[in-house]
Design brief:
The complex is a heterodimer of chains A (151) and B (108). Chain A is built from 3 helices and 7 strands, in the order αβααββββββ. The longest helix of chain A has 9 residues. A 7-stranded antiparallel β-sheet of chain A has the order 1-6-5-4-3-7-2. Chain A is of the alpha+beta class and 151 residues long. The chains are: A alpha+beta (151), B mainly alpha (108).
Chain lengths: 151, 108
């Protein structure tokens, strides 16, 4: 983590919209979890549907594939439902699923109580950001918002 | 040289190549969360192509820091010692592979 709460320059260069929007680094880097786990509130496991032998964690009884619809099902198993907006709604928490032009999920972010979003960047750090900040070729853009009532 | 002949890589060259490819792979895939995309990176695929001689080097890297070497190890060795409850827990997955390596005579 840089001393001013920003990513190293070569990392920021891979996510050019970040520097055009507000963001800050909120953790040290870690390889122990990824964005899909972090969106679900986990920080000790790497979620990824992968064949053969599904050597990573994936949600039981959900297909092992990268389709957006599959990730929706995975989060539905945690009580989320599809939603048509990313606005902050009192009493609800939201997840944004990013996807590429081929309809494959690439990234997920979770909304914070202040309305901003928290993301784990692959094996790098967690950041607090705006949804548009992570719109980039490798992540694509937000394809689906999900929400669930805060328990 | 015919298109089907490749130079034999010496052990020291294997280590140098591995370390260079591993650094390139880490640098270029660090932002990704989808394991299949991480594992399909050309540098990672070249490491897999180096075959069994690279296994001790991967074990050494895994011992230094758990990372996504599991696809490569399974591709090269055909084994998968990670138990279902360990899936996704990189530190436990690394320990399972290190134990497997020792049991199967690898030294690093």
């Amino acid at each position: 983590m840089d001393i001013d709460g920003k990513l190293e320059i070569f990392r920021e260069n891979k996510l050019p919209n970040l520097s055009l929007t507000e963001y800050s680094v909120t953790s040290k880097q870690s390889k122990l979890y990824n964005c899909f786990a972090w969106a679900a509130g986990e920080d000790n496991r790497w979620w990824s549907p992968i064949d053969p032998d599904n050597i990573y964690y994936w949600v039981e009884d959900v297909a092992i594939e990268l389709k957006i619809s599959t990730f929706i099902q995975a989060y539905q198993s945690l009580g989320y439902e599809v939603c048509d907006n990313s606005e902050l709604e009192p009493g609800f928490e939201k997840i944004a699923i990013y996807g590429d032009s081929e309809g494959e999920a690439t990234h997920a972010a979770r909304q914070l109580p202040n309305g901003k979003w928290t993301s784990k960047l692959g094996s790098w750090e967690d950041i607090e950001h705006e949804l548009e900040g992570l719109t980039v070729e490798m992540y694509g853009d937000v394809k689906q918002i999900l929400k669930r009532q805060i328990r | 040289m015919s298109p089907y002949q490749y130079p034999v890589i010496q052990t020291t060259d294997i280590e140098t190549s591995f370390l260079e490819l591993a650094e390139q792979w880490r640098r270029e895939t660090g932002v990704l969360s989808v394991t299949s995309k991480i594992s399909m990176h050309p540098a990672y695929q070249r490491i897999i192509g180096m075959g069994q001689p690279v296994v001790p080097l991967i074990m050494r890297e895994l011992e230094r820091e758990p990372d996504h070497w599991f696809w490569a190890l399974t591709a090269i060795t055909g084994a998968n010692p990670v138990k279902e409850k360990q899936r996704g827990r990189l530190d436990q997955m690394a320990q399972a592979w290190l134990a497997w390596g020792r049991e199967n005579g690898y030294r690093w």
